[in-house]
């Protein structure tokens, strides 16, 4: 894995997991020092994160963790509500016993994260569940788009969600797998719409107060976050 890819994944995970909260300033010099790289490398990563809407670049002010507006947040979730059910017929067409085992194992991880009150990890796990399902539809363009939407909705949930935004996911996801195993396309599509609408309804738009961040401590090798 290249250095810039490693830094990109570390920063993206820190944003999604709410270690870097919306509105946090991201100084190139401090980040470069924390990662031990040049500012050119750091700038490249920030530009990539900006293209994916995790970071906002402001002229003469620098980079900040994106603070999703209410409209942007709802648009992301509404787009998922529209698109993810459309993939279900193709997902079911490619479904196998191996997929059942794989996704049920992921549900166990989600359950453990919720039981251990690891809210940020639970957010990442539920996003992974959804975008890895989308990949089974065998449409790489749509799968990549759903993956970005899942990460962006993770940022929304981290910023504005409550425990209920992810706490019910484990049992719910198990129900979806059962519907896939039973080849019940219509029921699975209705389940998906209801599930995503429930997440949307749990969002509460309140701003966080930004705080100074010790980037060296956050991104120290001993505290590195898992990379997906």
TrEMBL record:
Keywords from the UniProt entry: DNA-binding, Transcription, Transcription regulation
InterPro entries per the UniProt record, alphabetical: GntR_C, TF_FadR/GntR_C, Tscrpt_reg_HTH_GntR, WH-like_DNA-bd_sf, WH_DNA-bd_sf
Keyword Transcription regulation: yes
Regions crossing the membrane: none
Superkingdom in the source lineage: Bacteria
Alphabetical list of SUPFAM superfamilies matching this protein: GntR ligand-binding domain-like (SSF48008), Winged helix' DNA-binding domain (SSF46785)
Domain HTH gntR-type, residue spans: 1-68
Record-given protein name: GntR family transcriptional regulator
């Amino acid at each position: 894995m290249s250095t810039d890819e490693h830094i990109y994944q570390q920063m993206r995970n820190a944003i999604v997991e709410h270690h870097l909260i919306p509105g946090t300033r991201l100084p190139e010099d401090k980040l470069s020092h924390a990662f031990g790289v040049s500012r050119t490398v750091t700038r490249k990563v920030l530009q990539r994160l900006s293209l994916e809407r995790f970071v906002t670049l402001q002229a003469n002010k620098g980079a900040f963790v994106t603070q999703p507006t209410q409209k942007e947040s709802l648009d992301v979730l509404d787009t998922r509500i529209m698109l993810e059910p459309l993939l279900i017929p193709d997902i079911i067409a490619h479904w196998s016993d191996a997929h059942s085992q794989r996704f049920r194992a992921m549900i166990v991880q989600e359950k453990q994260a919720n039981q251990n009150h690891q809210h940020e990890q639970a957010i990442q796990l539920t996003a992974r569940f959804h975008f890895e399902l989308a990949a089974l539809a065998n449409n790489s363009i749509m799968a990549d788009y759903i993956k970005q939407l899942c990460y962006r909705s993770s940022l929304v949930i981290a910023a504005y969600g409550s425990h209920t935004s992810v706490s019910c996911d484990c049992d719910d996801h198990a129900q979806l797998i059962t519907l896939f195993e039973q080849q019940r396309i219509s029921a699975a599509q209705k389940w998906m719409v209801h599930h995503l609408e429930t997440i949307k309804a749990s969002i509460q738009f309140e701003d966080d107060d930004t705080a100074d961040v010790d980037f060296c401590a956050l991104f120290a090798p001993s505290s590195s976050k898992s990379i997906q």
